[in-house]
Design goal:
Layout lengths: L3 H13 L1 H11 L3 H14 L5 H13 L4 H11 L1
Length: 79
């Protein structure tokens, strides 16, 4: 399971950049196989060595984990 700290970091990132909220919502609506394919595509596109690309890949990896995007949305809506 992903730590509370990481979930809070994703929530903070979503607050700072509302475009991320729409990504998280889109991921929440995907089934497990679609999430896996989305993660694979993100890793192909973002496999560079720049720190921004690594952070973006980490974001996509985390939000495609089972239940994480749903939890992030729930907490953002509860605010």
């Amino acid at each position: 399971m992903i730590s509370e700290k990481i979930i809070n970091e994703i929530i903070t990132a979503c607050r700072n950049d509302t475009r991320l909220i729409s990504i998280v919502k889109d991921v929440a609506n995907m089934d497990k196989n679609t999430r896996y394919e989305f993660r694979k595509k993100a890793s192909i596109v973002l496999k560079g060595k720049h720190s921004i690309e690594k952070e973006a890949l980490k974001f996509y990896y985390l939000v495609t984990e089972d239940g994480i995007s749903e939890e992030v949305i729930r907490r953002l809506e509860d605010e």
